[in-house]
Amino acid sequence: MSKVYRTALDEDILLSIEKPERYLGNELNTVKKDKTKIDIRFAMAFPDVYEIGMSHLGIQILYSMFNRREDTWCERVYSPWVDLDRIMREKHIPLFALESQDPVREFDFLGITLQYELCYTNVLQLIDLTGMPLHAEDRLYENKGAAASSGDSLQEAKLGEMPIVIGGGPCAYNPEPIADFFDMFYIGEGETVYDQLLDLYKRCKKAGATRREFLLRAAQIEGIYVPMFYTPAYNEDGTLKTFTPDPEHPELPKRIRKQAEADLSTAPYIDRPLVPYMRVTQDRVVLEIMRGCIRGCRFCQAGMIYRPNRVKDVDVLKKQAERLLELSGQDEITLSSLSSSDYPCLQELVTYLIDEFGKKQVNIALPSLRIDAFSLDVMSKVQDVNKSSLTFAPEAGSQRLRDVINKGLTEEDILHGAGEAFRGGWNKVKLYFMLGQPTETEEDRKDIAHLAQKIADVYYEIPKEARSGKCTISISTSFFVPKPFTPFQWAVMYDPGDYLGFASTVNHEVREMKNHKSIRYNWHEAYVTVLEGLFARGDRRVAKTIESAYRHGALFDAWSEYWDWSRWTAAMSDTGLNLAFYTKRQRREDELFPWDFIDCGVTKKFLLDEWHRATHDGTVTPNCRENCNACGAMKYGCGICYDMADGKPVPRKNHYQEWAKAQEKIKAEKKAQFEAEKEARTAEYEAFREAARAEAEEGAKA
Amino acid sequence: MRYRIRYSKQGLMKYIGHLDMMRSFQKILRRTGIDVTFSEGYSPHMVMSYAFPLGVGMTSDSEYVDVDLNRPYPSVELVRRLNGASPEGIHILDAREVPVGKGSKGMTLVARADYTLNFREGHEFPEGWKENFSRFIAQTEIMAVKKGKKTVKEINIAPLIYQAVVDPEPFTVKGIADDADAAEDDSAASGSHENEAGDSLDIVRSGDIFLALSAGSAANIRPELVMETFAKQYGYEDPEHPDPFRFRINRDEVFADTVAGDAEEAKTAAGGHNFVPLIGLGKIIS
Lengths: 702, 286
Description:
heterodimer; A: six-stranded mixed beta sheet; 14% strand; B: Alpha-Beta Plaits
């Protein structure tokens, strides 16, 4: 026995850093292969600390998918935490992959998932720690640095000498601010063309192709974007003029088409779940029930880029739940989707999970569901009512603004749901809002406080004897960041000081409320918001600012304890970046955006129509189930865009006029019903109080 | 019924902290499908307790955890099923039934722990340390500075060192599969499980120093404290900055003292103690 355990880090390093478990790669169900029998070594990286990265579902799916291939070994990489980062730089320890503990520099691919903009400096950290040049262009040559000093001619690098750096995930929908650092991006869902890409790589490597030759051929795979072959040109005012593929290569596509997996039920899912030893953020079995969203919230990028909405078969999910729980030994399972309440078989699935696994003491963690009779019933079964809280995400305080953002949640829905919950024993409510949205006024902001008070009213209306103490209403606001491929991609942002002013308005108004002692308010960082705004809609020129900030020491920007705005202001001034150009400028409706070369299914015309509806009169757009609004995603030939008729998919139709008419009626009915219920309840409470008074008087007499 | 499980924690598992190990052990139990007892209430948890938490960096042949099960299982079956669900570095050695009751909890019984220490390459004491160590151990009074969370106090650790041996005889770590009777049962029960019948650990433990130290709530002495006190006395290191990486330390065994509280037995027992490995207090279920 006495096996030799090789770790990339020495024992004394492992014992002197925080949480050495992050770097061992010995989690249960990790895949180990014989590297001599492997053609492709893939390092899949999440540019944040282990606990966050291990919680990410997408990586686990791709990890299983890649490792199903006999010729490929996919391993994991996370950002070394600040303590180890320092040691690695001091001792020249290169970035290593967890499973083999081998340097990533020896791999064929370094895949980096881009889940949020604030990880960009961590992306640079990962590439930098491998020992590779940061810029993709510099990785094309064997002797880039040496040639510059000696005057020798540049030698084209062969494929396989350094890993191909490939990015993916939601931030890849505007890859331009980090385009210089990546050899390629995979736009869309990983299930579709990765096999094609890996096969091509294998062929090219065997044939002795250069790195450039491979990139050129990869660029012709649908969904693969190789930034170095595309050149932006700018107008005098700084806006984008043209964005063109290298004219010497007419085979390059002009637009990159987003990839979408048509059938989630048969698509690869997690084979053997990785089970970490240390506590990670999402330490449970995750079932992906649905992709995409039927609701068209106008601020939401996920709601647009993951269209069309596709559901996974409920029987497949039941089997996966059982298998994953058995293989992991986890004591909790949760559902993943953008809006679980819209999953057609939710009731069946949740009932199954509770019946089947509840008795095995498996906790069913419910994602934020729409509050209705069903969800309250389920929640009372799986959680302690006294401890848990209800969550609403109205996103805006007034109905007017909720219509502008197309958030199909009405005040009646919230008050009705809260009332039901209060009578069911709950007394904690969480409310999420965004500040700084298009057309937002001071009144809209104050309405956030008013809505909280209305909820408090619903609670304190209940006779004292029938409620459990005080209620707590927590309001949380973030600041709105306009994202590419949303109707709000044309919106302007504000200065950090403005944002704090918005929050202060809410704060003051909350204090004016009758039940302000029951209302708590907290708001997010304003400077971080502005930076996110810069990255979200930035162009290729932003790259040098990111690189400069990284050189100034910026890292883990998503972590408030390491976030330092001064590094970014220094970087902006060093690189001459005009922040207001990217955040506060009113974009023209016909402006060419840096991300317009990506075809994400949803058309720019649809987005612009939605922008007009939002800003002109706040007309609500129906969700995909109610009506097809012809957004463009139907061309993917799957999901909600098709009805089944006689076993055949039939494209859904746009019948907006009828929908709008019917909607008025439904709204009126809902309102009337709500009022009637309220009246009935008031009478009931009065009777209750009357009875209590009478009883007290009786008691006093006696 | 309550079972006491003994397992070894080796290799990379030494970096896994106590709390994480506890959670991981629950996952191991869940993966086996063994019928574990849960507490009542809104967040039911497994009824289990650890005898003696192990620090990060130390390996062990004797981790003890007591777990309540809803029905009896043969010891060998428990060992086999737990091993089938355990990650590399965790090896289940034994599982025996122990009485339920406050006084029989592993945690309250711990009285002694044995350790084998190995120098890490390049961290050895200078030539002549062995002789000095023998002199050091022979003292009747060894004053050591024991630092608690809040308190710093000086105590005499000499009576708390039950044994200290330089270049000890190597010994083999044995699990239930190495037990003759149990192994017989095991071979009968196996068949469907490859690799299980002769699943003995077969570890030969050897080292530079062997220490048997008082442990548990009454008087707990860490092996590092003994060695730091030694190093300080002979000027081998700056007492303000002891070398944290001098030794690789393995916990060999954890004992209860059956004499404690039993005046009759104390009269006859050697040195006033009768140390029994915690697993020895349990009953093999066949």
